[in-house]
Amino acid sequence: MNYTYAAAEKSTVKLTITFSGEEWKNAIDKAYAKTRGKYTVPGFRKGKAPKSVVENYYGKGVFFDEAFNVLYSENYPAIIEKEKANFTVVGEPELSVDEMSEEKIVLTAVVPVKPEIKIGSYKGLEIKKYEYNVTDEDVEKEVRKIASREAKSVDVTDRPCKSGDTVKIDFSGSVDGEKFAGGTAEDYDLELGSGSFIPGFEDQVAGMIIGEEKDIVVKFPDDYQAENLKGKDATFAIKLKGIKGKELPELTDEYVKKHTGSETLADYTAKVKERLEKQAQMRGRDQTENSILQAISATVEAEIPQAMIDSETDAIVGDFSNRLMYQGLKLDDYLKYMGQTLQQFRSQFADQARARVVSQLVIEKIIKDENITATDEEVDAKVAEQAKDLEKDVEEYKKSMDPRQLSYIRNDIIITKLFDFLSANNNLVA
Quick check: is 137 in a domain? Predict the structure, then answer.
């Protein structure tokens, strides 16, 4: 067997594999040994007829398909492994037979590969920087959550509903005068301020009194999961049927110590503020990094193989399905509820999947071009930091680590360096 390969169109490699007549004959013998039990020939027990007899009875090409599979399975993976430094396969090949004779068999595999991308620029760009501040109100709201653990639910009849209340409502939604799947419910319990409904819905329910009916108008987000509702204005007819408020215990030093371990309310408040500020910093950093990637990706020229988009779509759908499972739902049931096929559901993630693929290719290319690495000393320092946080001996902790953990730490250091580099070499504007 010998082979050649050459770059082809649309980020593929054309692999031409040539087998000798002897190799083809051996493949047919293996195909016969593997599949002979399928064939019945008069005068022979099933699977016991000689190869020549089966060929005469069913035709000379009876074992050809399986023989091709033998040649492919025994040789293709080894070729791909041998050439992994020259190209990276990202999907299944398209196979064809170019030539077939007693002297040789020529198979062609058109293989989707990771593309070489061209980045227009990744320095000197003006990019939005995200920053979030933590207010005293944010801290107080978070601190009061510990009191909600022992909150008593009480019926409210003498005031309008407000954020924090749980209301019982009937609602019926429509878009352009037509009701849509999942837009109608009766006796639905909704906690106002929970963010469980689309933006604007809960805010407009707040202020209603028991027995009140009104229409509210909201807009579905542009990235809403249902394709037929994305970016659409919707009208919901609301009837408020009940209000339950929360009666909270008093937040004293004694209560805080019992439920948090902090000595005083002031100590706990300080810890909450520190935690919220770290979360706000991380949120701003993550969104800024996404902003950087989007700006750079907009300058990219590349032919992205459909196999890579399909694979990323698989990951997105898989994540969505897992989130549904945590809620006690199955994806098939969700699709029936939304009136969508799996293909329709997958199609709405195509742009997102492509963007994620491009972002990953951008990250890989810049890391390679700028030679961004993580030294063993930097990895050891990170391990020591983790060991200290866990109050463990560094050497014992490192021995207990899985190699994948060390790989993750190394990769995390590289990614951190990458975004430090990109932040320093672009103009981040708040």
Answer: no
